[in-house]
Amino acid sequence: MKNKNAFTIIELLVTFVIITLVGGIGISSFNNIFSGVDKNYYQKLEQSLLLSENDYFESHREELPIK
Predict the structure, then answer these.
(1) What does the alpha-carbon distance between residue 36 and residue 54 come to, in Å, rounded to a whole number?
(2) Angle at the Cα of 65 (from 59 to 67), degrees rounded to 5?
């Protein structure tokens, strides 16, 4: 007589494959999202530094030795 309460090896294998596929897709998506956020952050930081540099040199132009 078979025990009907246990999972078969095929059911466990299919469940493992599905979890692996979903996990792989999720990790890949998170990596893409976070790399895009980092890229956007550094672009905004660079723009902010350039604007600050221009403002500083415009306000202190008389004090600079370069004409």
Answers:
(1) 27
(2) 75
Note whether 45 and 38 are within 8 A (CB): no
Whole-structure pTM value: 0.48
Q: What are 50's two structure tokens? A: 């350039």
Q: Enumerate the H helices of 1-67 as residue ranges.
A: 9-59
pLDDT in tens, 38-56: 778 888 999 999 999 988 8
**What is the distance in angstroms between the CA of the first residue and the CA of the last residue of the chain?**
97
Q: Measure the CA–CA gap between 55 and 53, rounded to whole angstroms.
A: 5
